[in-house]
Design a protein that fits this description.
Layout (H helix, E strand, L loop, with lengths): L10 E4 L7 E4 L1 H4 L2 H12 L9 E5 L2 H13 L2 E5 L9 E8 L2 E8 L8 E9 L3 H12 L3 E10 L13 E6 L1
Parallel strand pairs: 3-4, 3-7, 7-8, 8-9
Antiparallel strand pairs: 1-2, 5-6
Helix pairs in contact: 2-3
């Protein structure tokens, strides 16, 4: 299955979660095991020979793709979560939202200094969550190879929030 074939599995949901938003829903893709495998492969492929040691999967849909990408790359999976969800000591980064602030956490022992990492999520919109995850990785002195996504909403210019390589399989 070609990466562009994956678009047929992305459902457009108008006015969700609020009026004026066109939500790109990956639920139909997740119902098809071949599409999930193709999506994970398309995310992982550019990084096969880059020595990735850790994949940082961002809560929650980043976990869905982070695990098979980590497996494909022979890397460990690091969970990046909302506060209070991880049972061990954590690093925290807070970041601005349109109306307010949010926080992400990662275990302090998840990445060793110098380890090569790949940030993975299902979608990049405004880039705030990915930028916070990039900051978490840098606090651990990681070597960040890139941030990789299944979907990029180009009109929101989220990649401008990242001073890192950005890979997106599908662009809208």
């Amino acid at each position: 299955m070609d990466a562009q074939d994956l678009k047929q599995y992305i459902r457009d949901v108008p006015d969700f979660p609020k009026e004026g938003i066109l939500f790109r829903d990956i639920s139909p893709l997740l119902l098809n095991s071949e599409a999930v495998a193709a999506a994970a492969e398309a995310i992982a492929a550019p990084f096969r020979d880059q020595g990735i040691e850790r994949v940082l999967g961002i809560e929650s849909r980043g976990f869905i793709f982070g695990a098979p990408v980590a497996q494909a790359l022979g890397a460990g999976l690091v969970l990046v979560r909302k506060p209070g969800k991880l049972p061990w000591k954590t690093h925290q980064v807070s970041y601005a939202l349109e109306y307010g602030e949010d926080t992400l956490e990662m275990h302090t022992d998840a990445i060793e200094p110098g380890q090569r990492v790949l940030i993975v999520d299902d979608l990049i919109a405004t880039g705030g969550t990915a930028a916070a995850t990039l900051e978490l990785a840098r606090r651990c002195e990681a070597d960040v190879a890139a941030a990789a996504f299944l979907i990029e909403l180009e009109f929101l210019n989220g990649r401008s929030q990242l001073d890192s390589n950005v890979h997106a399989v599908l662009k809208y």
